[in-house]
Structures are given as structure tokens and as C-alpha cells.
Backbone:
């Protein structure tokens, strides 16, 4: 038997590349060869981790293709979603990704992998895979829950039965009674506009139906009703193999995920070690989200009102958000990381009692895997759906009251609400939240151990692909 070869092609955004690298590490640990295809600027996201793990004989290659940023009116070097200077240019970014098709196919012809794992936002790769008679597996990078909610909203359009965007409706035909309002939906969920970006999402959905199957960074025990709903009711073929981040076991692996961390790991650990168990709040809104200065100020004041110690990853260089005297007043209580935080290292520390998150799926699952209760502040993408999973189904978190889907944090979340949510999770209902969070942490750990549901999912996936090779070639 020849060695199987998987090619991975993630969207060039940290939230997609980080789990893809973990997926590649997982499959090579099973004796499979992996190639990650990306653009020159993003090689650095993968290269260090691959070099660090060389002693484990991990056979992961990286191959690069040009990204035509300037040709699509993007700034030179704009090769990652967080580098797109304004929301108006997102369509140009997707257009540039579609222009990778030709060089991508030349590379696939040369590599001849047995299977292609590509991002949901590269719908054209279904056709590329078909040209070479290989299965395309789609990596969605979100929860089963979010996809079931999105599908129900698109099919039933429940937002049309209410009189305003602030009035709640029940999402039909789901295992739980989930309420949302129109303001929490994206234009793509509503499917009402014939815009260019709308067209991209339409092709994405069509490619889901045409692809060989879908890989989820999730685990069965976390959302069993939604795994069943997605596979049995909606009839999709899928494998759940997460939480992928749990493959990062060494401190070095946890420190350098995605980017070089902006704080020295010893300094960070020293600060965390000086705090008592479950006493601090960790705040981070992922790799793309943008906060207005006024919402940052509300958060700063909310933290101060809550009285808890905190560690806060701040992505902006602009210091205007800092309330006067805030840093001085909180210097004993707070650590501000300007730039990239070693999130896995922080979340795994026993000092962390709550995680204020935007509900990006990676962050949500990393919080769950670390057993940390959450305070949720969604902004865009499917983050409002992930919030509902946390606050209403898993019940291991509380929302701050963010209700408006948009690219930047909406105005209106008030310091009192933030402090109240922190207090519920850290003090008033701490015991219940912590117990539930610990249960999910244990389940996550078991899922990826030998014999666990995700371990079995990965075995089933590899078996399926090796059989495909003999059936179809
Ligand atoms: N991340 C990190 N440090 C940071 C910001 C983000 O390590 O300062 C990682 C985080 O652990 C997660 C990913 O970046 O793995 C963000 O993905 P997520 O889906 O949560 O959010 P997105 O960035 O896609 O909005």
C-alpha cells in the first residue's frame, strides 16, 4: 500500500489556518503525508510549528502560490483577512482567492494527493478535485449547531414573521428552542440581497452539497443533537475530529500558535502563577474583530467595576481607548498584552476563571477544552449562533447583551451589563458554571483519546479515504 497523501488548503485567516495546521499534525501522526498549500506571507504561520516537531518525524510540506492582492485593488502584501484595510474590500479579497484556482490546480496536478481538504470559502476546489478524481473534503471551521441554525433560517425565513429586527423569533425545527432576532443575522443568512458577496455564499452552499464530506472541529458529546440533526435530518456526510487544539500538548506549541506571541512566556506564566485559582478574567476577541474606542472604554470600565484581576489581549495600536488613569489604577490587577496573546497557554492556566470572547469557533472550543466559563460578546460571522450554543444549550456562559451583527463591535453594550455578566460567572453562579465547564473539559479530553469519539472519527475518515482510492482509481 502506498502512503496516503492529504493536501490542505485553508482560507488565509488565522481562524482557519490554525485548526488546519492542527488537522495536518493529526493526520501525519497516523502515518499519512500532508501538504499545506498557502501564500508566501502565510508560510510563517506553519513553518515554526513544523520545524519544532521535526523530531517527531512529522512529514508536512508547505507549498506556496501567489496571491494577487494588487491586481485586485488590495494593498501590496494584503494576504490575510485581518490585513484587509476596510470591510468594503472584502469582496476584492474573495476575488483574489478565486484567482488562485489556476496555480492551485497546477500544484494539485504535480502533487497528486489522495484527498483535498479545503476551506468552505474556496467553493471552486470541488471542481478542482473532480478534475483529478480525488475527493474534496470541506473544512467549515465552525460548530454543527451554527450550521443547523443557519440552514433553518435560510429555509424557513422566521425573521419575516416578526415586526422588527429587534423582536425575537424561534428558529424552527431545531432540537432546542433557540431564539434570535433579525439584528443578529448576517445579510447572507437572510439571503435577500443579490450582491456579489451574496453570490459567493451561494456557491459556498452549493459546494457543500457537492463535496465528498465535511470535517468538523467539534466532538460528538458537545453537541450530540446537532450532529444527529446535521447528518440524519439534513443528510450530510461528516466527521467530527476535534477539539483540534488539544493536539498542542507542549508549552512551546501552546505559546506559538498562529503568530509569535507579544509577551514572553515566562513573564506571562509568572504573572498568572501569582494569582489564585479561578480569580482572573481573560479577554481576547480573536484575530480579526475590531472594537470602537468607546466600546473598549466600556469594557475597561466594566472590568474595573467588576473588581476582578484580568489579562487583556488588545489588538489595536491606537491608545485612545484607554480611559484616563486606567492602566495606572489597575496596574496591580491587570496585564494588558498589546498584540498577540498565547491564548492556549493562558486558558489552560488554573488562575483563569472566565473568558470574555467574541465566540469565534476556535476560541469558543478552546475555552470549552480548557474548562473555562465564558462571557460572550459576538460581533459578526456565525458568532451570534455560537453564543446561543454557549449560553442556552451548554449553559457554560453568559452574554453581555451584544445584539447587532456588524464588522465592528456595536455601540450600546454598557459597562454595567459587562460587570454583571462577569459577576454571574465569577461570583453569583460561579459554582454551577465551573462545574459545567469542567464536565465539558473532561468530555473533550476523552473525545481525542484513543477510543474516544473524535479519535474514532479520524480513524473512520482515514479508512474512508483509503477505500475511496481503491474504489475510484
Ligand atoms: N489567537 C491567539 N492569540 C490572540 C488572538 C487569537 O492565539 O491574541 C488564536 C486563538 O487561540 C484562536 C484563533 O487565534 O485559535 C482565533 O480564531 P477564532 O475562530 O476564535 O476567531 P477569529 O480570529 O477567526 O475571529
Residues:
Amino acid at each position: 500500500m502506498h502512503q496516503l497523501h492529504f493536501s490542505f488548503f485553508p482560507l488565509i485567516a488565522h481562524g482557519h489556518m490554525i485548526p488546519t495546521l492542527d488537522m495536518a499534525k493529526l493526520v501525519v501522526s497516523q502515518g499519512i503525508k500532508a501538504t499545506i498549500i498557502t501564500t508566501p506571507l502565510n508560510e510563517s504561520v506553519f513553518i515554526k510549528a513544523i520545524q519544532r516537531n521535526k523530531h517527531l518525524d512529522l512529514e508536512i510540506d508547505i507549498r506556496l502560490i501567489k496571491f494577487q492582492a494588487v491586481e485586485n485593488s488590495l494593498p501590496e502584501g494584503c494576504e490575510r483577512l485581518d490585513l484587509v484595510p476596510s470591510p468594503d474590500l472584502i469582496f476584492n479579497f474573495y476575488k483574489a482567492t478565486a484567482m488562485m484556482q489556476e496555480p492551485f490546480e497546477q500544484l494539485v496536478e504535480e502533487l497528486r494527493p489522495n484527498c483535498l481538504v479545503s476551506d468552505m470559502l474556496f467553493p471552486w476546489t470541488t471542481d478542482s478535485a473532480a478534475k483529478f478524481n480525488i475527493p474534496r473534503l470541506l473544512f467549515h471551521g465552525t460548530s454543527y449547531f451554527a450550521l443547523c441554525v443557519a440552514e433553518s433560517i435560510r429555509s424557513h425565513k422566521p425573521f419575516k414573521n416578526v415586526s422588527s429586527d429587534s423582536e425575537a423569533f424561534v428558529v424552527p425545527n431545531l432540537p432546542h428552542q433557540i431564539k434570535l432576532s433579525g439584528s443578529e443575522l448576517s445579510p447572507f443568512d437572510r439571503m435577500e440581497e443579490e450582491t456579489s458577496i451574496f453570490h459567493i455564499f451561494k456557491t459556498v452552499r452549493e459546494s457543500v452539497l457537492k463535496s465528498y464530506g465535511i470535517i468538523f472541529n467539534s466532538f460528538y458529546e458537545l453537541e450530540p443533537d446537532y450532529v444527529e440533526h446535521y447528518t440524519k435530518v439534513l443528510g450530510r456526510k461528516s466527521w467530527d475530529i476535534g477539539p483540534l487544539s488539544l493536539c498542542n500538548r507542549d508549552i512551546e506549541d501552546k505559546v506559538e500558535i498562529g503568530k509569535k506571541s507579544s509577551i514572553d512566556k515566562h513573564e506571562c506564566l509568572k504573572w498568572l502563577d501569582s494569582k489564585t485559582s479561578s480569580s482572573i478574567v481573560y479577554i481576547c476577541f480573536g484575530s480579526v474583530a475590531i472594537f470602537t474606542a468607546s466600546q473598549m472604554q466600556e469594557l475597561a470600565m466594566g472590568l474595573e467595576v467588576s473588581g476582578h484581576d484580568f489579562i487583556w489581549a488588545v489588538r489595536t495600536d491606537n491608545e485612545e481607548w484607554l480611559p484616563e488613569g486606567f492602566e495606572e489604577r489597575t496596574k496591580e490587577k491587570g496585564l494588558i498584552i498589546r498584540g498577540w496573546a498565547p491564548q492556549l497557554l493562558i486558558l489552560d492556566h488554573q488562575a483563569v476563571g472566565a473568558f470574555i470572547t467574541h465566540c469565534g469557533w476556535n476560541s469558543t472550543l478552546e475555552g470549552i477544552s480548557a474548562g473555562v466559563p465564558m462571557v460572550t460578546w459576538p460581533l459578526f460571522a456565525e458568532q451570534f449562533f455560537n453564543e446561543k450554543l454557549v449560553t442556552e444549550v451548554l449553559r457554560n456562559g453568559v452574554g453581555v447583551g451584544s445584539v447587532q451583527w456588524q464588522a465592528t463591535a456595536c455601540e450600546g453594550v454598557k459597562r454595567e451589563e459587562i460587570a454583571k455578566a462577569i459577576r454571574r460567572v465569577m461570583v453569583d453562579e460561579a459554582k454551577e458554571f465551573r462545574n459545567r465547564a469542567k464536565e465539558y473539559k473532561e468530555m473533550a479530553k476523552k473525545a481525542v483519546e484513543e477510543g474516544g469519539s473524535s479519535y474514532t472519527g479520524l480513524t473512520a475518515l482515514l479508512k474512508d479515504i483509503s477505500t475511496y482510492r481503491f474504489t475510484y482509481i
Remarks:
- The domain at 5-246+449-472 is CATH 3.40.50.2000 (Rossmann fold).
- The pocket of uridine-5'-diphosphate is lined by residues 14-15, 18, 257-258, 284, 286-289, 313, 340-341, 343, 360-363, 366 (CB under 6 Å).
- The mean pLDDT is 93.
